[in-house]
């Protein structure tokens, strides 16, 4: 039998910043470790994009060859996917136990193990660049991935290990949310962010195996000659696409559900109004998780799949708009006639709403058979996907960091730099994605290293590249703000945002053992502006205990 998990009172952490560079059982330290790794990979994946966007600024190959370009395209996609998974783990690890009144995660040792699996997985993934690269893009379709250089093997192994880390972390989150809530916190008194993470974790534990299985089968075909996807050996390359997309479309909701949860969590705080339709918003996360498993086929309308499957997948794809629309109506109704405040976290929340709405409005043409046959694998899809990812994850991630940074460090991030970050990022990003969708409608294919200058794509590509560098500069401002604020930011000890959530009822930064005394829930989580309303109260321990 393994060692019993120590009680919180028995855990002694290394003081100072050194504790973030070793193995820890404290969920808050692990959350920061995930966040640090996520920021590194975010910067790395963005740098890859700047390199190949510079190549695309004009026609002709200037400084990259085809293999280098394809490797950068694939690394940009998968490294940022890994970054998103770790960013979600960072938010969940730090916030969820505090938010539900728990001392720690359900399985602290498993939590640490999950993080320390992600580290070598990320290193293996990045190492693919240095052992031959790969030409497949992030989707790694066979037969090209079966014949590719050694880099694709490292790519598969890295993704496999990061996926394993994601599964274990999600199992831990499910157990924590279901079993460790404070007394009185029924499911429908639980914060919306916890609902979002529960839905996300259910997807992750049930779907991630499929991408691991598909990549493992390609590895076996490469190493052992098993012809899973080789028609000459009785295999079927379309099988890989079914396995891959059965994970990779639900994975979109793994990426965006936590971000949508952040938006729903922060809007009532800055509108000073109850969250409109709380129960519907909570259940809509579960609705998105469920319908997300029924839509993978719209990625395969052009693959030669049976025609009688196209229409059901088209309808199921459009059905996802229903639970997503519930969230949008809730957000608008929550803001309506509210006493809105606009600090930096609120700006990024509103930016996320706008950009994710653009992603939602541009999605149906790629989910409808007749239009997808023309748009598939064009830059229109690139623009739509980036709107979805930035609106559903990147903008909410920045909102979450600005909002919960005092809870991590006891200091507030600079509002001046934060607003400069936002007002540079939003227009630059919109320019980038509108340009991508425009050239996609004109017929430019995605994942190509060169194009015909006579097609009229040059000016749009130059604008997209300039916009991409502006986005990168805005993120650089964020990193500078992060560094300066952690060292010299305004000291904050109390409830900076006047939130009702449990994590803001304790000192900042959050103490080692979270709550000095147990808490219980006695009201509704989002009754902002209602007189004599309380959400949590401290449970006083009898004298002598």
Automatic annotation (TrEMBL):
Q: Which organism is it from?
A: Levilinea saccharolytica
Residue ranges of every copy of the Cytochrome oxidase subunit I profile domain listed in the record? 24-523
Signal peptide as annotated in the record:
none
TM region(s), chain numbering = 34-52, 72-100, 112-134, 154-180, 192-215, 251-271, 278-301, 313-334, 346-364, 384-405, 417-435, 463-484
| Biological role | Cytochrome c oxidase is the component of the respiratory chain that catalyzes the reduction of oxygen to water. Subunits 1-3 form the functional core of the enzyme complex. CO I is the catalytic subunit of the enzyme. Electrons originating in cytochrome c are transferred via the copper A center of subunit 2 and heme A of subunit 1 to the bimetallic center formed by heme A3 and copper B.
The protein, known as: Cytochrome C oxidase subunit I
**Which GO CC annotations does the UniProt entry carry?**
membrane
One Gene Ontology biological process: aerobic respiration
Family assignment? Belongs to the heme-copper respiratory oxidase family.
**What does the record say about its membrane topology?**
Multi-pass membrane protein
């Amino acid at each position: 039998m393994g060692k019993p998990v120590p009680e919180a009172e028995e855990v002694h952490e290394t003081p100072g910043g050194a504790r973030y560079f070793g193995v820890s059982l404290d969920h808050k330290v692990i959350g920061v470790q995930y966040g640090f790794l996520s920021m590194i990979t975010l910067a790395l994946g963005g740098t890859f994009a700047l390199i190949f966007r510079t190549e695309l600024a004009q026609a002709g190959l200037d400084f990259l060859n085809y293999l280098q370009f394809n490797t950068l395209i694939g690394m940009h996609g998968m490294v940022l996917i890994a970054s998103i998974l770790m960013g979600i783990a960072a938010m969940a690890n730090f916030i969820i136990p505090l938010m539900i009144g728990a001392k720690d995660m359900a399985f602290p040792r498993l939590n640490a193990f999950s993080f320390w699996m992600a580290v070598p997985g990320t290193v293996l993934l990045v190492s693919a660049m240095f052992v031959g690269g790969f030409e497949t893009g992030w989707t790694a379709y066979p037969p090209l991935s079966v014949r590719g250089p050694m880099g694709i093997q490292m790519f598969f192994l890295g993704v496999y290990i990061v996926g394993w880390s994601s599964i274990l972390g999600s199992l831990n989150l499910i157990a924590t949310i279901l079993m460790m809530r404070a007394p009185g916190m029924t499911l429908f008194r639980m914060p919306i962010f916890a609902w979002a993470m529960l839905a996300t974790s259910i997807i992750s534990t049930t779907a991630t195996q499929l991408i691991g299985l598909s990549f493992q089968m390609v590895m076996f075909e490469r190493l052992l000659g098993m012809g899973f996807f080789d028609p000459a050996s009785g295999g079927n390359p379309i099988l890989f696409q079914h396995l891959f997309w059965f994970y990779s479309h639900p994975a979109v909701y793994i990426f965006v559900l936590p971000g949508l949860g952040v938006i729903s969590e922060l809007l009532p705080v800055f509108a000073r109004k109850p969250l409109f339709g709380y129960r519907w918003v909570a259940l809509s996360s579960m609705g998105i998780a469920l319908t997300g498993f029924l839509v993978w086929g719209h990625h395969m309308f052009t693959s030669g799949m049976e025609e009688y499957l196209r229409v059901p997948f088209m309808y199921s794809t459009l059905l996802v708009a229903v639970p997503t629309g519930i969230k949008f109506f809730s957000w608008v109704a929550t803001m309506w006639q509210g006493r809105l405040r606009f600090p930096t976290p609120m700006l990024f929340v509103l930016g996320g709403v706008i950009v994710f709405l653009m992603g939602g409005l541009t999605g149906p043409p790629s989910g409808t058979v007749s239009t997808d046959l023309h748009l598939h694998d064009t830059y229109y899809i690139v623009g739509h996907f980036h709107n979805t990812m930035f609106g559903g994850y990147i903008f909410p991630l920045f909102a979450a960091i600005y909002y919960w940074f005092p809870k991590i460090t006891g200091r507030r991030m600079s509002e001046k730099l934060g607003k400069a970050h936002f007002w540079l990022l939003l227009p630059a990003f919109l320019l980038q994605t509108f340009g991508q969708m425009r050239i996609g409608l004109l017929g430019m294919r995605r994942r190509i290293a060169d194009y015909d200058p006579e097609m009229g794509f040059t000016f749009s590509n130059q604008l997209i590249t300039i916009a991409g560098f502006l986005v990168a500069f805005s993120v650089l401002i964020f990193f500078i703000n992060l560094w300066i604020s952690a060292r010299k930011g305004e000291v904050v000890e109390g409830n900076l945002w006047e939130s009702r959530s449990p994590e803001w009822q304790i000192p900042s930064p959050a103490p080692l053992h979270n709550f000095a005394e147990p808490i219980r829930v006695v009201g509704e989580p989002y009754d902002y502006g209602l007189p004599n309303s309380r959400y949590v109260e401290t449970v006083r321990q009898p004298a002598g205990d």
